[in-house]
Amino acid sequence: MSEASCSELDDRHPDPGASRGTVIFLNGTSSSGKSSIANELLRILDEPYFHLAVDAFHAMRTRQEMPPEQLTTVLHNTWRGYHRAVAGMAAAGNNVVVDHVLSEEWRLLDCLDLFVPQDVVFVGVRCPRDEVERRERKRGDRPPGLAVRQLAQVHAHGVYDVECDTSRADPGQCARLIKEFLPHRPLPTAFQRLREKIPDAVSPG
Fold first, then answer.
1. Which of 55, 130, 170, 200 is catalytic?
2. pLDDT, tens digit, 9 for 90 and up, residues 40-51
3. For the chain, which end, N or C, has fewer CB atoms within 10 Å of the first or last residue's CB respectively?
4. Can the peptide bond before residue 14 be classed as cis, meaning omega within 30 degrees of 0?
5. Domain boundaries in the chain?
């Protein structure tokens, strides 16, 4: 179907009561394999999904040089905008695959505040230190040691719906594990449990 045809269908059949979308939230260090899993998920999932990768949001930003203090603010605002874009897509009824690095606690708190917790499938993408270091060296497009610096914080919250180890399973196997989990999601979800575990997760009002 052409883009024009899709646009015409949107105009003729508005659906303001559409249900919320599912958010498959992949969390792991840089070079842990999140993007590869996300690409496999889009290939094998039965329903339409959008892969919203934070790297794509960073890539939209101007390349001009900025002083460190300004860059810190811009990066923080990029992450905040990314979270709100994901929440907005899901609220509009779109299924989303998120590819994230929760290497700072505020990022998790922001997501817990914004996302409907029962709609989130929280996936821990784990990879041992030696392997992420090897992948990082092979890629050559990340600052050396970035993944190792992220390891201590990324999984610190300790709660997931499902986990995979990309040193033991390839992206296709990880994606199939997640797909098989989707119809059997138990309640409370990991995001619901984290909201109860972390009192500051939801801001007043």
1. 55
2. 999 999 999 999
3. C
4. no
5. 19-199
